[in-house]
Amino acid sequence: MHHLFLLRHAKSSWANPELEDFDRPLNARGQKAAGLMGAYLAQEKLIPDIILCSAAARTRETLSRLLPFFIHDVEIRITNAIYHARHPDDYRDILLEHSEASRKIMLIGHNPVMEDFARQYAKQGSADLIQQMNNKFPTGSLAEIEFPDPDWISERASGILRRFVPPRSLG
Protein backbone atom coordinates (compact mmCIF):
# COMPACT_ATOMS: atom_id res chain seq x y z
CA MET A 1 0.00 0.00 0.00
CA HIS A 2 1.29 3.45 -0.93
CA HIS A 3 0.60 6.77 0.76
CA LEU A 4 1.05 9.91 -1.27
CA PHE A 5 1.22 13.24 0.53
CA LEU A 6 0.53 16.14 -1.81
CA LEU A 7 1.63 19.41 -0.24
CA ARG A 8 1.07 22.66 -2.05
CA HIS A 9 3.76 25.19 -1.17
CA ALA A 10 2.84 27.70 1.52
CA LYS A 11 1.81 31.28 0.74
CA SER A 12 4.48 33.13 -1.21
CA SER A 13 5.45 36.77 -1.23
CA TRP A 14 4.79 39.18 -4.06
CA ALA A 15 6.55 42.04 -2.22
CA ASN A 16 9.43 42.26 -4.70
CA PRO A 17 8.11 42.68 -8.24
CA GLU A 18 11.67 42.32 -9.55
CA LEU A 19 11.83 38.64 -8.62
CA GLU A 20 11.07 35.96 -11.16
CA ASP A 21 8.23 33.61 -10.20
CA PHE A 22 10.74 30.81 -9.57
CA ASP A 23 12.58 32.92 -6.99
CA ARG A 24 9.67 34.13 -4.85
CA PRO A 25 10.08 33.26 -1.13
CA LEU A 26 7.36 32.60 1.40
CA ASN A 27 5.66 35.52 3.10
CA ALA A 28 5.19 35.64 6.90
CA ARG A 29 1.83 33.84 6.70
CA GLY A 30 3.40 31.11 4.56
CA GLN A 31 6.32 30.68 6.94
CA LYS A 32 3.92 30.22 9.86
CA ALA A 33 1.67 27.83 7.90
CA ALA A 34 4.60 25.66 6.83
CA GLY A 35 5.77 25.36 10.43
CA LEU A 36 2.27 24.43 11.58
CA MET A 37 2.09 21.79 8.85
CA GLY A 38 5.46 20.36 9.94
CA ALA A 39 4.20 20.07 13.52
CA TYR A 40 0.98 18.45 12.30
CA LEU A 41 2.85 15.91 10.17
CA ALA A 42 5.03 14.95 13.13
CA GLN A 43 2.09 14.75 15.55
CA GLU A 44 0.15 12.51 13.16
CA LYS A 45 3.28 10.45 12.34
CA LEU A 46 2.92 11.26 8.64
CA ILE A 47 6.62 11.27 7.85
CA PRO A 48 7.43 10.23 4.28
CA ASP A 49 10.27 8.00 3.15
CA ILE A 50 11.04 10.33 0.27
CA ILE A 51 10.17 13.93 -0.54
CA LEU A 52 10.05 15.13 -4.13
CA CYS A 53 10.20 18.91 -4.08
CA SER A 54 10.05 21.53 -6.78
CA ALA A 55 13.24 23.53 -7.14
CA ALA A 56 11.37 26.85 -6.81
CA ALA A 57 12.34 28.98 -3.80
CA ARG A 58 8.89 28.86 -2.16
CA THR A 59 8.69 25.05 -2.28
CA ARG A 60 12.23 24.62 -0.95
CA GLU A 61 11.45 27.08 1.86
CA THR A 62 8.23 25.20 2.65
CA LEU A 63 10.30 22.00 2.85
CA SER A 64 12.91 23.63 5.10
CA ARG A 65 10.19 24.55 7.61
CA LEU A 66 8.93 20.94 7.74
CA LEU A 67 12.27 19.22 8.30
CA PRO A 68 12.89 20.25 11.94
CA PHE A 69 9.79 18.25 12.90
CA PHE A 70 10.88 14.98 11.30
CA ILE A 71 12.42 12.52 13.74
CA HIS A 72 14.20 10.34 11.17
CA ASP A 73 16.12 10.96 8.00
CA VAL A 74 14.06 11.49 4.87
CA GLU A 75 15.42 11.18 1.38
CA ILE A 76 14.94 14.48 -0.44
CA ARG A 77 15.03 15.05 -4.18
CA ILE A 78 14.75 18.57 -5.55
CA THR A 79 13.66 18.68 -9.17
CA ASN A 80 12.87 21.35 -11.73
CA ALA A 81 10.39 18.96 -13.36
CA ILE A 82 7.79 19.64 -10.64
CA TYR A 83 8.02 23.40 -11.21
CA HIS A 84 7.70 22.96 -14.97
CA ALA A 85 4.83 20.43 -14.81
CA ARG A 86 1.75 21.57 -16.72
CA HIS A 87 -0.49 18.49 -16.56
CA PRO A 88 -1.33 15.83 -13.93
CA ASP A 89 0.41 13.25 -16.12
CA ASP A 90 3.64 15.18 -15.54
CA TYR A 91 3.33 14.59 -11.78
CA ARG A 92 2.50 10.93 -12.42
CA ASP A 93 5.64 10.58 -14.55
CA ILE A 94 7.75 12.25 -11.84
CA LEU A 95 6.36 9.87 -9.23
CA LEU A 96 7.02 6.86 -11.44
CA GLU A 97 10.59 8.01 -12.03
CA HIS A 98 11.48 8.78 -8.41
CA SER A 99 9.36 6.66 -6.10
CA GLU A 100 11.01 3.23 -6.58
CA ALA A 101 10.20 1.08 -3.55
CA SER A 102 9.08 3.95 -1.31
CA ARG A 103 5.71 3.47 0.36
CA LYS A 104 5.28 6.98 1.79
CA ILE A 105 5.97 9.70 -0.72
CA MET A 106 5.53 13.46 -0.41
CA LEU A 107 5.39 15.75 -3.41
CA ILE A 108 5.73 19.48 -2.73
CA GLY A 109 4.52 21.42 -5.72
CA HIS A 110 2.31 24.01 -7.33
CA ASN A 111 -1.17 24.69 -8.58
CA PRO A 112 -2.98 24.19 -10.85
CA VAL A 113 -1.27 20.83 -11.44
CA MET A 114 -1.34 19.86 -7.74
CA GLU A 115 -5.10 20.35 -7.53
CA ASP A 116 -5.75 18.66 -10.89
CA PHE A 117 -3.59 15.68 -9.92
CA ALA A 118 -5.37 15.28 -6.57
CA ARG A 119 -8.77 15.39 -8.25
CA GLN A 120 -7.71 12.81 -10.81
CA TYR A 121 -6.44 10.27 -8.27
CA ALA A 122 -8.46 10.85 -5.06
CA LYS A 123 -11.65 9.15 -6.26
CA GLN A 124 -12.67 7.40 -3.03
CA GLY A 125 -13.06 8.40 0.60
CA SER A 126 -15.23 10.80 2.53
CA ALA A 127 -17.53 12.70 0.18
CA ASP A 128 -17.15 15.78 2.41
CA LEU A 129 -13.35 15.67 2.25
CA ILE A 130 -13.36 15.15 -1.51
CA GLN A 131 -15.76 18.05 -1.97
CA GLN A 132 -13.66 20.30 0.29
CA MET A 133 -10.51 19.44 -1.68
CA ASN A 134 -12.27 19.84 -5.02
CA ASN A 135 -13.66 23.25 -4.03
CA LYS A 136 -10.26 24.73 -3.30
CA PHE A 137 -6.71 23.50 -2.68
CA PRO A 138 -5.24 26.53 -0.85
CA THR A 139 -1.54 27.24 -0.49
CA GLY A 140 0.02 25.16 2.26
CA SER A 141 -2.66 22.45 2.09
CA LEU A 142 -1.98 18.74 2.45
CA ALA A 143 -3.86 15.88 0.80
CA GLU A 144 -3.09 12.31 1.82
CA ILE A 145 -4.12 9.73 -0.77
CA GLU A 146 -3.83 6.03 -0.05
CA PHE A 147 -3.38 3.60 -2.95
CA PRO A 148 -4.23 0.00 -2.04
CA ASP A 149 -3.50 -1.28 -5.56
CA PRO A 150 0.10 -2.39 -6.30
CA ASP A 151 -0.24 -0.63 -9.66
CA TRP A 152 -0.75 2.47 -7.58
CA ILE A 153 0.08 5.28 -9.96
CA SER A 154 -1.16 3.96 -13.26
CA GLU A 155 -3.49 6.01 -15.44
CA ARG A 156 -6.41 3.93 -14.12
CA ALA A 157 -5.43 4.08 -10.45
CA SER A 158 -7.95 5.23 -7.91
CA GLY A 159 -6.84 6.33 -4.48
CA ILE A 160 -8.64 6.96 -1.21
CA LEU A 161 -8.49 10.51 0.14
CA ARG A 162 -7.60 9.91 3.79
CA ARG A 163 -7.21 13.54 4.79
CA PHE A 164 -7.28 17.04 3.42
CA VAL A 165 -5.74 19.63 5.70
CA PRO A 166 -5.69 23.32 4.80
CA PRO A 167 -3.34 25.35 7.04
CA ARG A 168 -6.21 27.46 8.41
CA SER A 169 -7.48 24.30 10.16
CA LEU A 170 -4.23 24.03 12.13
CA GLY A 171 -4.09 27.30 13.93
TrEMBL record:
It comes from the Bacteria. InterPro entries: His_Pase_superF_clade-1, His_PPase_superfam. Pfam families: His_Phos_1. Substrate binds at R58. Gene3D superfamilies: Phosphoglycerate mutase-like (3.40.50.1240). This is Phosphohistidine phosphatase.
